[in-house]
Amino acid sequence: xxxxxxxxxxxxxxxxxxxxxxxxxxxxxxxxxxxxxxxxxxxxxxxxxxxxxxxxxxxxxxxxxxxxxxxxxxxxxxxxxxxxxxxxxxxxxxxxxxxxxxxxxxxxxxxxxxxxxxxxxxxxxxxxxxxxxxxxxxxxxxxxxxxxxxxxxxxxxxxxxxxxxxxxxxxxxxxxxxxxxxxxxxxxxxxxxxxxxxxxxxxxxxxxxxxxxxxxxxxxxxxxxxxxxxxxxxxxxxxxxxxxxxxxxxxxxxxxxxxxxxxxxxxxxxxxxxxxxxxxxxxxxxxxxxxxxxxxxxxxxxxxxxxxxxxxxxxxxxxxxxxxxxxxxxxxxxxxxxxxxxxxxxxxxxxxxxxxxxxxxxxxxxxxxxxxxxxxxxxxxxxxxxxxxxxxxxxxxxxxxxxxxxxxxxxxxxxxxxxxxxxxxxxxxxxxxxxxxxxxx
Length: 441
Prior knowledge:
Elements: H1 2-36, E1 47-53, E2 55-71, E3 74-77, E4 83-88, E5 95-96, E6 101-105, H2 108-143, H3 149-183, E7 184-186, E8 191-193, E9 203-204, E10 213-216, E11 221-228, H4 229-240, E12 246-250, E13 257-271, E14 276-283, E15 295-312, E16 317-319, E17 322-328, E18 334-338, E19 340-344, E20 348-353, E21 360-364, E22 375-377, H5 384-400, H6 402-417, H7 426-440
Parallel strand pairs: 1-22
Antiparallel strand pairs: 1-21, 2-11, 2-15, 3-10, 4-6, 4-9, 5-8, 6-7, 8-10, 11-14, 12-13, 12-15, 13-14, 15-20, 16-17, 17-18, 19-20
Helix pairs in contact: 2-3, 5-6
């Protein structure tokens, strides 16, 4: 009986051990199966970007420089003789014409001096008349040998002296006439007078500083600006060919156009310190929008390129490969495409080489791209009502596929954040793509 009882626990232990071994084997099989099972590949969501098509068009070749409004004439009116200023005939800021009365210097002392010169002239003219009368008598006497030859010659010299004295008197009178004219100060040029520099009652002297008034010619006027020596050849080529190069002046902040004119002069020397040459353009300035010594932005139209390949300026990138664009391939991927840039007007840039018309390039969202990245072109911006209607659809897509919606939302946010940026490096774009892949995983 005791032997039978001792055999039962042994059998129960063996059964328990067997069950445990079976369970362990099953667990091992499950673990091996889980570890060796291949994970389904995760497909990265396409990056939402904005694209544009390269087009053919004309591009003006312009030189944008900083210029200064330089009047054609700026005259400081100085007194040419001394005296008391008795009157001023202009109003500050007034437009005056050439020859218009400006100021009056007391002329009485010069009138008296003129009268004295006229009296001296009358005296010398009388002496000359007497000397000529004596010369006539001496001539007759000399013909009959009635007087000495020396007496006749002295009388001839006396007449010449009196003639010279009369000429000197006439010159003195002319000088006093000129002084009297200088007493009445008139405008030497047409233009606008500045603020009054001397008030009536002051004693002024010849060429005294700061003068009576400053007159500035307002219209027409000119603008001086400099261009680099590398751009001078094309400008001279057009000018020597007889072309009239238009020049446009803009405000200092480039917010509005002020006036249009033409280039008419190029300086004859290059500034060695800056490597630039000075040009001057003339403007009619009928509305007097250009003010003397004002700083303006100048755009000189040198020529116009026809049938040039144009892309939006934000599509052009710069980095390790140089200047490049992201070219959209037929399979909705992008590739880095090196290009040679031409002139730009800010909105569009000419592609001189490396791109053809109708090629599609990425214009917005380039910060998250890399060579070979999958993209999705963003739809055109809808109206406000359409945006409201499309909002539920977006929400539904997010609910049905959270991972995909999250990736697309992050791509759209990066694309909108990159709007307006013109130059980005290729390395920065690759880093952004890697960051988005990590976020997706």
